[in-house]
Amino acid sequence: MRVVVCGDVHIGAVFGLGGPNGSGGNTRVDDFKNSLSHIVDYCIDNDVDVFVQTGDLFESRNPTPEHMHIADSFLKKLSSSGISSIVIMGNHDYRRNGSEFSSSISSLASNEYANVRMVLDPEVIRIDRGTDDSINILLSPYRDKRMYQSRTTSDSSKMYDKHMLELLGAIDNDHPTIAVGHNFYYEGSYNDFGGAEILTNISSFKSCDLVAMGHHHSFRIVQDKHPIAIYTGSMEKINFGDKDLDKYFIDYNSLNKKILFKKIPSRQLHDSEINMLDVPITDVDSFLEKKMSETEVMDKIVRMKIVIKESMSAAISKSYIEKKLYSMGAFFVSKVIVEPVSQRIVRDLSVLSHKDHSLMFEEFVKLQGFEEKLEAELISESKNIMGELDASS
What global pTM score does this model have? Predict the structure, then answer.
């Protein structure tokens, strides 16, 4: 039995990293569709039996019709290929109203497709592909402490762990068992992740070969011995905090219990800073051109920051930098930031002792620490101006 586990998808998580695609959609949503398409095509091309999505199918608890259509279309493709497809509720798919809760995944048209299952409450299912080819899958959607009617996260988490043990204990066969969920692992403190969310102890899944948890966006092997415990990570790079993270999905083979981590080809994010604090005003343009030409932005989403003296910030054009990045092949320019750094102005009142205004200004300029060429130009121009004023008076 081949099972593919896909991490948090977050369809609709644009966050200023995309723009109009010319067809009424958004380029960033297209990126998410391409990543999801890669995983779905892998499942079809490699005769995968089961596809499990770890929750947070959508970014918003109230996804748009466009985003729901995207999810439906991929589930339909899996369904028509005979692949059992399971989507569990994540915290982004979870809406609470008093003591009741609902989920956007319940509204998907794909609920009616063959081979598709939406999971809002923990359960164990068994999937058979023949006498010697069966698997048990514990499906555990997002849980918060209110679902276990306890005052503290610690007590609720322990009740959750007991619940998992009971579900796994009820399995009456010796087929391989894996668990897929959407909560954080307990790693030392119940207050590490906000206080209200269930934290699960890996030992609760001791009868499983593999535990794959979504919710945490960075792929990580939390425990490399039985049971193997993994954070699947998000399917795509959600923001610039993910720019250096590779994204993976899991391919588990129940016959040999082999686990493969398959890298997802995703849009690259480039975040850079050009520091121009020590660049003379006369060299601003050439320095900026040189530094930008050394930056590899082809087909990437780009954010660029220019740090410059406040007195020289007017020399930087955001629109020019944006056009330059696009001419260099940037896929999308998310933001150009010009960060002016103010310098301390020396206020030495001793300069006022000069009765000659020209000498007074010259001494003031020399106290500011301007570069030599600029200092000379300022003093020379001031003498010209003051000379003209004296002549007119």
Answer: 0.84
